[in-house]
Design brief:
2 domains; two-stranded parallel sheet; binds uridine-5'-diphosphate; alpha/beta; Rossmann fold; UDP-galactose 4-epimerase, domain 1; 330 residues; 10 helices; single chain
Length: 330
């Protein structure tokens, strides 16, 4: 990473703020554009914050010009699978329409490098695991569909313009900054690990495990939990890769290990030393039984691999953040 300014759209959010921290640790300058619908101004602590929408072309132009920016990382998106099933229009508006306006602006302003938050949700229900990048992408919800359209727009913009991109397909982002400066604050919270920890704190009566009859070892659903600091590191490496002349590409970001919901609960009990009441319930609509990555392509392209491979350590970082949240009343 050199001392360049990077526009980080959605940089006040969960993964965005961790990426800004990594950029600034390595000597770069993160410039954040965030409409604060999901992000928080306290999380944009590593550089200037501009409050506005990714689809506000004039505002984006002003920021790109002011900071002489040719590299953009785009996190800003709606990302709740369940909500996308009840309000698909919101997802197409924010994740597709606004992104297209943003891309047009980037091309007009001479942006050369673009890092995009894609998702394992673009694969739908895979025929086999671990998932490789060349497997079919058949999303089963509007969220995954909008991320796939994002990838397709990038493909064609890069074919037709002097412009390169890396689409990073995240598996289950989790954990928090080990320094406790920033971390995940979502309202409502739908993600497994923070919910389990809220149950440990007594903020929730219990954690409901969605589904016990999956064809997995213990019957609960299996996911690939990738630490947010590892994700942040991958973004900086992806940017360096493009700046060094790397070709546009799409990469899975996961540990390669499948962990069940039951294993997450057991780990949280070990880490917190608390009871954690569990209720076993039916499957959640739209949940595939098992999703975990083959991350070897990211290793080859970026020299990246997950450092946080122990689920207890990941949950420890999230538990630490829960204590910070209580102290800072976040
Ligand atoms: N999950 C659960 N109870 C909860 C929240 C999540 O059993 O209260 C399960 C969910 O069904 C999935 C896994 O935990 O199998 C991870 O869910 P999360 O919402 O964190 O991420 P997703 O995989 O949906 O992106």
């Amino acid at each position: 990473m050199d001392s360049r300014s990077v526009l980080v759209i959605g940089g006040a959010g969960y993964i965005g703020s961790h990426t800004c921290k990594r950029i600034s640790q390595l000597g770069g300058k993160p410039v954040v554009l965030d409409n604060l619908s999901m992000g928080h101004d306290w999380a944009a602590m590593y550089g200037p914050l501009y409050v506005g929408d990714a689809g506000d072309s004039a505002y984006v132009k002003q920021i790109l010009d002011e900071h002489d920016i040719d590299s953009v990382i785009h996190f800003a998106a709606c990302a709740y699978v369940g909500e996308s099933m009840t309000n698909p229009g919101k997802y197409f508006r924010n994740n597709v329409t606004a992104m297209q306006t943003l891309l047009d602006r980037c091309i007009e302003s001479g942006v050369k490098n673009f890092i995009f938050s894609s998702s394992c949700a673009t694969y739908g229900v895979p025929n086999e695991t671990p998932i490789r990048e060349d497997m079919p992408q058949k999303p089963i919800n509007p969220y995954g569909e909008t991320k796939l359209i994002g990838e397709q727009m990038l493909h064609w913009y890069s074919q037709c313009h002097d412009f390169n991109y890396v689409a990073l397909r995240y598996f289950n982002a989790c954990g928090d900054d080990p320094d406790g400066e920033i971390g995940e604050v979502h309202d409502p919270e739908t993600h497994l690990i923070p919910i389990v920890l809220q149950a440990a704190l007594g903020k929730r009566e219990y954690i409901e495990v969605f589904g016990t009859d999956y064809p997995t070892e213990d019957g609960t659903a299996v996911r690939d939990y990738i630490h947010v600091s590892d994700l942040a590191d991958a973004h900086v490496r992806a940017l360096d890769y493009l700046v060094a002349g790397g070709e546009s590409t799409k990469l899975n970001l996961g540990t390669g290990n499948g962990i069940s919901v039951q294993q997450v609960v057991d780990s949280a009990r070990r880490v917190t030393g608390r009871e954690i009441p569990v209720k076993y319930g039916p499957r959640r609509a739209g949940d595939p039984p098992a999703l975990y990555a083959d991350p070897s392509k990211a290793k080859e392209a970026l020299g990246w691999e997950a450092q946080w491979t122990d689920i207890d350590k990941i949950i420890e970082s999230a538990w630490n953040w829960e204590q910070v949240r209580i102290k800072r009343d976040l």
